[in-house]
Specification:
The chain has about 100 residues and is α+β, with helices and mostly antiparallel strands. The chain is built from four helices and three strands; from the N terminus they run ββααβαα.
């Protein structure tokens, strides 16, 4: 499965803290190795065509606005984890980004 996301990320500096504010703008899901092997007693080309149609249906249902909304809701649930103390940021692996702040 491949999930491609287009995101916007903002960062705010407020009295000693850094708040990261990500937002998903677009999302696309691709099932890279989807294979329907068997449907009851059916075999061969019929199952292959059914599998291809099912893959396209799944990808279509799981893309666009609904997926974007679900991903943004998941981010919102963890938003409290996106505020960092500036001193902690300077001691972390994110230090090179902090050095670029004007």
């Amino acid at each position: 499965m491949v999930l491609a996301l287009d995101c916007e990320v903002a960062a705010r500096l407020d009295s000693g803290t850094v708040t990261i504010d990500p937002r998903v703008v677009d999302a696309r899901l691709q099932l890279s190795n989807f294979r329907l092997r068997r449907v009851s007693n059916a075999k061969g080309p019929v199952v292959r065509e059914l599998g291809e149609g099912l893959q396209k249906l799944i990808e279509h249902k799981l893309k666009g606005p609904k997926l974007v909304a679900k991903l943004n809701r998941a981010i919102d649930k963890k938003r409290d984890r996106l505020t960092l103390d500036f001193a902690d940021l300077l001691e972390s692996a994110w230090r090179p980004l902090a050095d670029k702040v004007p």
